[in-house]
């Protein structure tokens, strides 16, 4: 019997419901649409799905602006649809992770509407961060929202409220006990409905300190915190050490309480993964101490260059830092907030890196469409929906490119996603990237993912740590190969643009692209490719 909890080295498939599958022809994906494609998900070889928010929402920020966290937005269906999705997933032995958003509510939430009506000094306003204007009428401080523009919006009576994101997303005041009580109610609501875990949005942001103090470079800081804004790594890291509203010590008290709540469900093994992009990176380990959360996202791979030294450092650091708190790392190459990995580093490189990380200890997260090798969708400005685009007057294009609906079948856009007009256009150039097309092509990205995840489960889950191989690893010299062994498997990635020899032992069992040849007793790894060898 394997006694490790289900999530320990799970592969988790992130579904952005609006973009997955549309069951009723209105052009937007929905919960019955997800349910209808669970066989596809199961056949990928994943263990769980993480559903981005599907709660009641005016949808100004893709559902991360929640107006009622204990109900389903009509665009996605209703609570019975959620129950059916969970039941059908469980029938296939797939766990379900819900995405909760504790940093802020939508301005349409009844609490915020009540706060507007109740006025300054009221207990309704204490659930949020309301402050008076400075004597000269300016906002309480100079912080810039992560979506651009001031972090403060003024209401009719002159007070300002804090929003780290869009003005429609007022930040909650977690010093107020009513806020925690309400979220515990939400957690229990979904656990009782059947979910197996939570992804906690902006988990590091709940406690704010120094709310009245200015920052020395608020615009630079806002840019540094955006995964979709390219920036010199040193400049970014220096700015990220100065964030005044993330990663305060008080957040850990909240998660200790939540952990007790999760553990009270005993054998159901309820888990939680924190979205906590904190600096320096060692701070992330605090979120996965034994009495806190179960996993924390490693964001470094979402911005890392395809470079042996960079990747070695990111991977080694993540493994060793997590080991200090007896936790395993998480690996994600794409998500709904960042450019798709195939666009960011290249198609072949994305396949190579995926196969490389699937061999590593810990949990692998796959963003729906990544398995097809989808690039970012090409979107005209007139079709854009991300609030960032509008709050920056178009200077930052936003995250819509990663959120274009999935192409399923047929030769003509929208490729079976919907019988109506999809909420973001799907390019006709995706004709060969549909599920149907890739299933028919044994060399497709989809088959690579399916084969890799099957081998991962069979040969590597529970196989312990990795050993970097000196014979292939020359990362510190900026060379082209990166290699490790784990259990009976040796994994070699060639990051260069030409084939490279490597003395990896064993039999080739999978390669991300090209053909592995043998020469003088050595293996020849194709350019921009990863191979696994079984001893
Ligand atoms: Ca729909």
Protein architecture, described:
The protein is of the alpha/beta class. It is built from 15 helices and 21 strands. A hairpin with a 5-residue loop joins strand 7 and strand 8 (160-162). It has helices at residues 31-36, 38-44, 79-91, 110-118, 177-193, 218-224, 233-240, 250-263, 300-303, 308-323, 341-345, 347-358, 387-391, 435-439, 445-460; strands spanning 11-15, 48-51, 55-56, 68-72, 95-100, 130-131, 152-154, 160-162, 197-200, 271-274, 295-296, 330-332, 363-367, 467-468, 481-486, 489-494, 500-502, 507-511, 517-519, 522-525, 529-534. The strands form 5 sheets. An 8-stranded parallel beta sheet has the order 11-10-9-5-2-1-13-12, covered by helices on one side. A 5-stranded antiparallel beta sheet has the order 14-15-16-21-18. The chain is 27% helix and 16% strand. The structure holds calcium ion (CA). Calcium ion binds at residues 22-24, 26, 28, 30.
CATH topology of the largest domain: TIM Barrel
**How many DSSP H or I helices?**
15
Query: How far from one another are the termini?
Result: 25 Å
What CATH architecture of the largest domain would you give?
Alpha-Beta Barrel
Mean pLDDT: 94
Strand order of the largest sheet: 11-10-9-5-2-1-13-12
> How much strand content do the residues show?
15-25%
Largest sheet: 8 strands, parallel
Extract low-pLDDT stretches.
474-478
Give the distinct bound molecules: calcium ion
What is the CA-based Rg, rounded?
23 Å
Structural class: alpha/beta
Give the CATH superfamily of the largest domain: Glycosidases
> In CATH, what is the class of the largest domain?
Alpha Beta
Helix content: 25-40%
Overall form: globular
The number of distinct structural domains comes to: 3
Number of strands: 21
